[in-house]
Amino acid sequence: MKKVIAYLKPYKKQLIFMFIIHALSTFLSLLMPYLMSAIVSEGIAKQESGTIVRLCLLMLGVGAVSFLFSLLTVRMNAKVSSSFGKSLSRAVFSKINSLSFEEYSRVGTSGLLTRSTDDIFSVEDAAGGLVATVATVPVLLVGGVILSFSADAVLALIFLAAIPLVLLLARFVTRPLGDMWDKSDRYIDVQNRIVRERLSGLRVIRAFGKEKTEHARAKDATENMTRYI
Question: How many CB atoms lie within 10 A of CB 200?
């Protein structure tokens, strides 16, 4: 993990800026229900049209700013993630070229293809979502608790009591993901190997009429992957 994070260091300033924008966007999103409640309690209940218009305009402005922040973070996230994936791909390619024949044979061509393509795409997506998660979750937690207590202390206590249960449930759901990831890598390696064998031996397969056999191999590999993952 430390080695992967090292490739994010050149984008430290962009990541900090994205973190701030994400946090602000999340905070503004939390204000929307509060403003809606104010419209009902202060405007509609008291029949004050001026208050309703003012709060509606404020709500519209908050929504517009939050939307602009979201667009900005999506743009920056895509730029940083693609640059990070490019740097990581270069590093993996250089590492593969430095492998000895014994190491190359042990990992296999299909495994190296998976490491240099699918795995890098997955790490790139994870890096893109990491900033959003780190920025959003604390703001949602703290802001949600504060707004809950301001609305109803009893409901807020129920909300706080439910947090450990939600965390345990999340842990229970995400626990098998590590094993599923390892299995996925192994089966993707098999798929890559079958595809490479079909492409490299295409003339021989056609010459001996083995198209159905190769289709069956690919089908069996796909079914095994869907069955055990």
Answer: 10
